[in-house]
Structure formats: structure tokens, C-alpha cells
């Protein structure tokens, strides 16, 4: 793919800050990629970044939208103590034991500020606090966010002056976000869901470079606020017309689901929130068989996606989800280096085939509501 490098793109994507509701950096990074490979690119009212590629088919029913979320798990200031220590709440499914202590950046309204997320010292007796409790509870007490704080060395008043107050977002600092190359595997923070975004950027670029048009109209929807209830996806599912909704996300490579930690994409049949449509997953199994690609299937619990949220709220009648097998989800995540190229391949095969008879089974795409 000409000048497009998946590893570099993924690495750079992961360095962009994107706490839910604050996805500007990620969107700014992605926009030029979409502009160079889509027919039209825009950002909608809730912050989704959308790239449209006009398909070969003239039937508006032949249309597909693919969702991948831009946001990442993060923290939010709950309050600032008199001594300037910042107390936090989670923003999405983030856990202190998985993220660990270390540098964070506080995205103040006027100014950004570095801080250190911590939970006190371990060299303490029962006269002290949290760290002692956690050490001496024989593993029965997991650290919670109320045990932690962010130290900045600044007073509460100085933090207020920077526009840092209850509601301010806090993210893992940029210099902790580097990708680690293990040869066959890559690891890093926020592969959920930058790995999926890298996949869609690579897909769009590949279509462009090879001068290929998808058969259906294609909407690449990079969504906002997935980690806190998929607000962006629900909004896009109501407004962006398409007969079929696909989601792209990371999936837990765990024995519980018989998902192997390989580069084989996962076709999902259900999660905690909704059923994905059997015809859609089955169709992708056929595509995989045709091109001789090994894929996996899964029935997930303790998992939700943009698409299952959109479906369960009645905005996405026909849906499928493809996942990239991932270890350490919602922590320092690991994927196989060939997982993204494989996912690009199966998606492009699907998009290039004549899916008219498949898409006709689904209900007509929504038209904008006009009084
Ligand atoms: Zn995700």
C-alpha cells in the first residue's frame, strides 16, 4: 500500500489523546487519511468522523456502514482536595490495577498539566492508608479508584487557574504510549480501538491505490464516546443511511471463548447487549472460505460494541461485528502483527463482491426525517 505503513500508523494513532467526548486529536489525525481515499469526509454533530466512498451499485439499498470508535478509556477529575491532590473517577472500563501508577496528562480547559497517578507508599504501617490495606489484605482487597490520586505539585488554586476542576479529563501521558514491537506481536495502550481504526484507514487507502470501488456505498464511521455507552454510534446509526451495519473492534483472545491468539479475525454472533445477525456472520464465513482465510467465531459475554448498542436501541436492524484477537484488553494490549492485514483483506473481499442479494434482505436504509 504505497506510502501507508500499518505499524507506523497504529503507533501514531495510539499516541493521540482520545478520552470519550474529547476525540479531536484522533479525528484530526485520521482526517487527511480519509480525505485522500474517500469521496467525501465530514464530522457530524456529535463528533463522529465519517468518510463516504461511492459504490459501484446505483441502488441506495446497497449500502454498508462500518463503525470503529475513536475514544479510549480514561479518567475524570472527581474533586481536588485542599492540598491539591486530585481524586478521580473512571471514564469507561478502566481499572487501577491494569493501568498502574505513572505519568498522566490532565487536559485542563486553559492549559494541560502533567501529573502522577499513585496510591501512596508501600513502606507504611497500619497507621497509614490504602497501600498498607492492599498489601495486608491477603489479596482480598483490590485497589479501587477511590484509593488513588493524581499528584501535580500544584495547589488547588493553581489547578483551578489552569481550568482543571471536576469534570476535567485525564489520560495516560503521551510518552507512555509507545508501541512495543515483539516481532510477531505488537503491544501498546489503546489498540482498543486504534487497531480497528488503522484497519479502516488501511482498507480505504488500499481501495484507492488499487483503483477499486466497493460494490455498495461505503460509510466509514469513526465514532465518539463508545466506551461510555456508544452515543456516537447510536447517533450515526440514526443518521447515516445504510442497509447493513458492521463494527470493527478488538476481541478478547481468551480460552473462555475458544478464541486463539492468532491473526485470524473473529466473527461475533452475540455479546452481552445484543445478537449480531446470523446471516451477516455466516456470509463472512463464506467469504473467508472462498479466499482460503482462517477465521474464528465467538459468542461473547461481558462485552459490548458500538454496533450492539446501536442494535439494542433499535437503530441498527442488521448488524455484524468483526474483532481483532487481542490480549490484555483495556490494558497494555497485544495483537498479532498480521491481524490487521487479514482484517483488511476479508473486508475488502466483502466490499468488492456483488452483495446485492444479501443487502436486499435487509430493511431499507433510513432516510433523513423531514417535516
Ligand atoms: Zn473497543
Layout of strands and helices, then pairs:
Layout: H1 6-15, H2 24-37, E1 40-43, E2 49-53, E3 63-69, E4 74-80, E5 86-91, H3 96-99, E6 102-107, E7 112-118, H4 130-136, E8 149-151, H5 156-161, E9 169-172, E10 180-181, E11 185-189, H6 191-209, E12 217-223, H7 231-239, E13 244-252, E14 266-270, H8 278-291, E15 296-299, H9 306-312, E16 319-326, E17 332-336, H10 339-352, H11 356-360
Parallel strand pairs: 3-12, 3-13, 13-16, 14-15
Antiparallel strand pairs: 1-2, 2-12, 4-5, 4-9, 6-7, 6-9, 7-8, 10-11, 11-17, 14-16
Helix pairs in contact: 1-6, 2-6, 6-10, 7-9
* Order of neighbouring strands in the sheet with most strands: 1-2-12-3-13-16-14-15
Q: Could you please say which CATH topology of the largest domain applies here?
A: Aminopeptidase
Distance between the termini: 46 Å
Bin the helical content: 25-40%
Supply the CATH superfamily name of the largest domain. Answer: Zn peptidases
Just give the CATH class of the largest domain.
Alpha Beta
What's the average pLDDT?
93
The tally of strands reads: 17
Strand content: 25-35%
Helix/strand structural class? alpha+beta
What gyration radius follows from the Cα positions, in whole Å?
Answer: 22 Å
Number of helices: 11
> Largest sheet at a glance?
8 strands, mixed
The topology string of helices and strands comes to HHEEEEEHEEHEHEEEHEHEEHEHEEHH
Ligand list = zinc ion
| CATH architectural name of the largest domain | 3-Layer(aba) Sandwich
* Shape descriptor: globular
Question: How many distinct domains?
Answer: 2
Amino acid at each position: 500500500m504505497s506510502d501507508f505503513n500499518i505499524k507506523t500508523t497504529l503507533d501514531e494513532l495510539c499516541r493521540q489523546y482520545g478520552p470519550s467526548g474529547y476525540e479531536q486529536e484522533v479525528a484530526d489525525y485520521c482526517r487527511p487519511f480519509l480525505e485522500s481515499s474517500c469521496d467525501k469526509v465530514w464530522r457530524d454533530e456529535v463528533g463522529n468522523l465519517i468518510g463516504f466512498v461511492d459504490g459501484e451499485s446505483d441502488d441506495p439499498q446497497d449500502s454498508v456502514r462500518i463503525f470503529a470508535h475513536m475514544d479510549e478509556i480514561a479518567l475524570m477529575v472527581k474533586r481536588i482536595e485542599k492540598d491539591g491532590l486530585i481524586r478521580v473517577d473512571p471514564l469507561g472500563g478502566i481499572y487501577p490495577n491494569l493501568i498502574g501508577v505513572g505519568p498522566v496528562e490532565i487536559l485542563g480547559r486553559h492549559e494541560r498539566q502533567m501529573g502522577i497517578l499513585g496510591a501512596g507508599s508501600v513502606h507504611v504501617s497500619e497507621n497509614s492508608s490504602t497501600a498498607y490495606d492492599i498489601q495486608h489484605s491477603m489479596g482480598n482487597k483490590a485497589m479501587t479508584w477511590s484509593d488513588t490520586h493524581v499528584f501535580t505539585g500544584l495547589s488547588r488554586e493553581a489547578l483551578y487557574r489552569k481550568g482543571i476542576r471536576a469534570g476535567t479529563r485525564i489520560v495516560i501521558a503521551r510518552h507512555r504510549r509507545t508501541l512495543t514491537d515483539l516481532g510477531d506481536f505488537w503491544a501498546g495502550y489503546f489498540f482498543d480501538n486504534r487497531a480497528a481504526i488503522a484497519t479502516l484507514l488501511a482498507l480505504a487507502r488500499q481501495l484507492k491505490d488499487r483503483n477499486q470501488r466497493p460494490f455498495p456505498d461505503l460509510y466509514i464511521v469513526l465514532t465518539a464516546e463508545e466506551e461510555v455507552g456508544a452515543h456516537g454510534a447510536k447517533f450515526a446509526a440514526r443518521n447515516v443511511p445504510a442497509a447493513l451495519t458492521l463494527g470493527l473492534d478488538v476481541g478478547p483472545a481468551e480460552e473462555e471463548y475458544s478464541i486463539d491468539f492468532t491473526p485470524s479475525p473473529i466473527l461475533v454472533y452475540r455479546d452481552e447487549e445484543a445478537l449480531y445477525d446470523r446471516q451477516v456472520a455466516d456470509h463472512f464465513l463464506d467469504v473467508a472460505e472462498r479466499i482460503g482465510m482462517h477465521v474464528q467465531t465467538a459468542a461473547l459475554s461481558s462485552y459490548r460494541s458500538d454496533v450492539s448498542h446501536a442494535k439494542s436501541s433499535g437503530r441498527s436492524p442488521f448488524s455484524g461485528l468483526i474483532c481483532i484477537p487481542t490480549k490484555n484488553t483495556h490494558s497494555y494490549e497485544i495483537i498479532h502483527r498480521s491481524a490487521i492485514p487479514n482484517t483488511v483483506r476479508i473486508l475488502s473481499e466483502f466490499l468488492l463482491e456483488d452483495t446485492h442479494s444479501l443487502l436486499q434482505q435487509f430493511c431499507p436504509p433510513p432516510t433523513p426525517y423531514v417535516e
